Structure formats: C-alpha cells, structure tokens
From TrEMBL:
One MF annotation (Gene Ontology) recorded for this entry: DNA strand exchange activity
InterPro entries referenced in this protein's UniProt entry, alphabetically: DNA_bind_recomb_sf (IPR038109), DNA_bind_recombinase_dom (IPR011109), Zn_ribbon_recom_dom (IPR025827)
Coiled coil: none
Domain Recombinase: 8-35
Protein name in the entry: Uncharacterized protein
Domain Recombinase zinc beta ribbon span(s) in chain numbering: 57-122
Length: 129
C-alpha cells in the first residue's frame, strides 16, 4: 500500500539506476521553468480588479442552466509580433468550481456575444412601440 505520509518516508540516493540521467532531468526542469516564466510574462496577463468596465452587467446576469450569478473575466493575450488581443468572457461561477459536487456544465461566452444579443433585444423594444 502507498505511504501517503502516515509513516516516515525515506529517500535513498543511488538505490537503483534512474530512467533519466540526473543531468538530463535538471536540464528539462530548467527548460520547463523558463517556458513557464516566458508564458506568464509575455502571453497572458490578468487585468487588475479595479479595471472592470462591465459594471452594467455585473450581478445582473444569471446562468440559464443553474440560475447562479455569472462572473466576468478579462485578460490580455499577446500574440507574437501581431500585438495584443483583449479577451472578455462571462462564466457561471458554479461552473468554475470543478470540485463542486453539483457543478454547472455551462460554458464561457464572449463579451461580443452578450453585446450583440443585448443590442438585438433593445432593437426589439424599439420595433414594438
């Protein structure tokens, strides 16, 4: 049975021949670390919470599947030499909680989708008058 910390654990160096040479292991770990840092710095950056531009919709949108409040997420993606692209999405807060027993299976949707349908809704009111 696996020892998950119930008993003392010991590391015996050189007990058996490694599958990967220690030098190769360290080299790979270094590459993984560098790529991770580069991705965090260059490709994906969260906006601060005080830069929220969707206060009109905040806490006014509810999930059609479970009825929970929809939350807003905004990020900036840098895509090589093509510049940056702002990504605005809405998501059910219960769908984000993967550990929830009765989690929601609804998907994220983009801000553009919300704006398009909201404008169509307003146009419908105009035509009804």
């Amino acid at each position: 049975a696996p020892n998950e910390g119930e008993l003392p654990q010991y590391y015996i160096e050189g007990h058996h021949e490694p599958i990967i040479a220690p030098e190769e292991w360290e080299k790979v770990q270094s590459i993984i670390q560098k790529r991770s840092e580069a991705f965090k710095q260059l490709n994906y950056q969260k906006y601060s919470k005080d830069q929220h531009k969707n206060s009109s919709f905040t806490e006014n949108l509810y999930c059609g599947e479970c009825g929970n409040v929809l939350g807003y997420e905004r990020s900036l993606e840098r895509r090589g030499s093509n510049g940056t692209k702002e990504i605005n999405r809405w998501v059910c807060r219960l769908a984000e909680k993967y550990y929830a027993v009765n989690g929601c299976s609804s998907q994220r949707f983009h801000q553009d989708y919300l704006e398009r349908h909201f404008i169509n809704l307003l146009k419908g009111f105009e035509q009804d008058e």
